[in-house]
């Protein structure tokens, strides 16, 4: 499996994702610059976290028009795998590859802390091996992470089993009290209808090494790879 990590001006989580995929998961990884028009034969494209183009206008609004995104959109439309983490999730919604939008956090503050998320389905690659009864501790670091969409789209996402994760308590309770940013229905991650494009606000790459004191994020990468390589 060959992974391509897209690097935009302002990306700052790209090396974290590269290290997890190449060193921890032993996968082939290449860097893709935002001005490129060549995905270099990559099977799976990852859009990392950060502050692409300084988050001017809206997070992801400018990055969505980077030259490489033309190729990423075509790749996704052909059924190729794409995943965005944090700023990458924002870019995917701006590009129309995922429904909804990521708005300013409810309390208008930048969040940087560990939270708990609960898998909502086993029918998506990043959650295929996860325990849907287990809360996973994963860090967040964002100012615009509040997932929002209209009522019809929300119903469609739920009916199609596209919700990957919801924010929850340490013991798995999904209530507004544990919704760290005010996201609609506690949603922390979703897929597209085709189940080949994924986005999540928490950072699993920051919780995938024993030296960091937390490997809950590694389970998400293991799940993703198991589904792709099956």
Automatic annotation (TrEMBL):
Any one Pfam family match given in the protein's UniProt record, by short name: GATase_5
Entry protein name: Phosphoribosylformylglycinamidine synthase subunit PurQ
Keyword Ligase among UniProt keywords: yes
Description of how the protein assembles with itself and partners: Part of the FGAM synthase complex composed of 1 PurL, 1 PurQ and 2 PurS subunits.
Main location, first listed in the record: cytoplasm
CDD domains, per database record: GATase1_FGAR_AT
Stated role: Part of the phosphoribosylformylglycinamidine synthase complex involved in the purines biosynthetic pathway. Catalyzes the ATP-dependent conversion of formylglycinamide ribonucleotide (FGAR) and glutamine to yield formylglycinamidine ribonucleotide (FGAM) and glutamate. The FGAM synthase complex is composed of three subunits. PurQ produces an ammonia molecule by converting glutamine to glutamate. PurL transfers the ammonia molecule to FGAR to form FGAM in an ATP-dependent manner.
SUPFAM superfamilies to which the protein is assigned, alphabetical: Class I glutamine amidotransferase-like
A single GO molecular function term of this UniProt record: phosphoribosylformylglycinamidine synthase activity
Active-site residues (renumbered): 86 (nucleophile), 203, 205
GO biological process, one term: 'de novo' IMP biosynthetic process
Pathway of action: Purine metabolism; IMP biosynthesis via de novo pathway; 5-amino-1-(5-phospho-D-ribosyl)imidazole from N(2)-formyl-N(1)-(5-phospho-D-ribosyl)glycinamide: step 1/2
Keywords in alphabetical order: ATP-binding, Cytoplasm, Glutamine amidotransferase, Hydrolase, Ligase, Nucleotide-binding, Purine biosynthesis
Enzyme Commission number(s) of this protein: 6.3.5.3, 3.5.1.2
Assigned GO CC terms: cytoplasm
Species per Swiss-Prot/TrEMBL record: Adhaeribacter soli
Catalytic activity reported: L-glutamine + H2O = L-glutamate + NH4(+); N(2)-formyl-N(1)-(5-phospho-beta-D-ribosyl)glycinamide + L-glutamine + ATP + H2O = 2-formamido-N(1)-(5-O-phospho-beta-D-ribosyl)acetamidine + L-glutamate + ADP + phosphate + H(+)
Keyword Nucleotide-binding: yes
Subcellular location: Cytoplasm
